[in-house]
Amino acid sequence: MISLPALGLFAGFAVVASFTPGPAVMLAVNNAMHFGWRRALWSSLGNISGLLTLSALSALGINAVLQGSATAFTLLKTAGALYLIWLGVQQWRKAGAGPGASAPAAPAPAPGLGAVQARPRALYRRGLTVALTNPKAIAFIAALFPQFLRSGQAALPQYAVLTGTFMAMSLLALSSYAALAVLARRRLRRCFEAGWPQRASAGVFCAFGIAMLRLHRN
Asked: What are the structural domain ranges in the chain?
């Protein structure tokens, strides 16, 4: 089994990686601004479910396939990039149409945003898709996890411990960002009603998508 010092070091890496802003963080912030912290939690659960899937795929050697096949890598990164850009465009179009700040603690989805988008299943699916279409996340897990595996011992239990730790740190980070977004919306009520923060996050989504298109295999 993984030693406690090694697990502590891994947890430190996981905290830094999880709290570093990326598509998953922006999605949590975006959902919290529009639907509240509890609804945003569903997209965060979708994201950590994606991490669980990526960890399993990494253990099966999917990263080697992506690194060995230019076509597979390009298809995955293009799908992820287009999805992020699509999220950005949708966010920009609906800026200022979100729920009013009269009930900032638990906002109800406005008709302009579409009740379907606020459903837990839709939010969960969105978070899962963001995680699964990120080749950089697959490469990160494939590169980091093996460094903490002890040779001569069963790999599956060790992968389970590392994956569980990474998922817990990710959920903590995403929940924290979502809570901060809700607090910010309370303080900047008029600004959010005007749609400027939403347009800013839309630009960030598109920027992440464009950046992903520029990814290259190592």
From this structure: 4-213
